[in-house]
Amino acid sequence: MSRQARILSRTNIYHIMLRGNQRQDLFHDDNDRWCFLNILQDKKVDSNSFLYAFCLMSNHIHLLLDASDVAKLMRQVNTSYAVYFNRKYQLVGHLFQDRYRSEPIEDDRYLLAVARYIHNNPVNINIVGHPGDYRWSSFGVYGIDNIDFRYIVDRDLILDMFSNVREEAMKLFINFSLVEDDTVYLDVEEQPIRDITTEQEAIAFIANFLRSRQSHFSIYDLSSNKVMRNEIIAQLKIRSTLSARSIASLLNVDRGVVERVKP
Predict the structure, then answer these.
(1) CA distance 113 to 180
(2) Measured distance CA(24)–CA(119) in Å, rounded
(3) pLDDT tens string 138-147
(4) 2, 31, 96, 231: least CB-packed within 10 angstroms?
(5) pLDDT of residue 145
(6) Angle 16-173-125 from CA coordinates, rounded to 5°
(7) Rg (CA), the chain
């Protein structure tokens, strides 16, 4: 089966997601993380690209990149880091899972929403309680003028959206990053971030959803609670790239049930 062509961004800005092959860790220590960031910095300078945000998790990576040839840039970064990693740990085979994922960013509202999503990734999976508490993201560059990552993050574009005064812009950015309702900042509709791309991720989402509701139901008996089932379907239609057929199969319901639920 041929690969589906990527959707290109008219702005050259993309939300890039990388995962370890078979969910393996991409970093074993801080030297690995610094190596990845230094490789990314070298390659983006060579290609005249820009990095607006990043978050390095244990087995996946989020990047907010501005690159005219993002495929070439990511191929160079992935190859260089995989060579380093496999040589250091005496491994063979693929380090990254399939190709990287990319979402085109076409407007300022979505750009800021993705930056906020990236910085809150450690918060959303309960690693830290505040994005500023996570060491390996670009949040500190925007929030507290962190010099460690200042050399790699191109922050001016985003900060200038808030204010021409740097201190005021940083304060507004922090406030924006900590609230879900951003209507006080922008006035266009935000696009959903589709972060669930596989059935395994959907199963994990459902388990977390049920746990957050303190529900005794499992994925296998949701048919007896239509309200909760439909809420899960709505969330999957918003947050996942799964087809209606896949969602129906996952929840053991008819496809028509899925199609009738409004996201």
Answers:
(1) 9
(2) 22
(3) 999 997 666 7
(4) 2
(5) 62
(6) 50
(7) 20
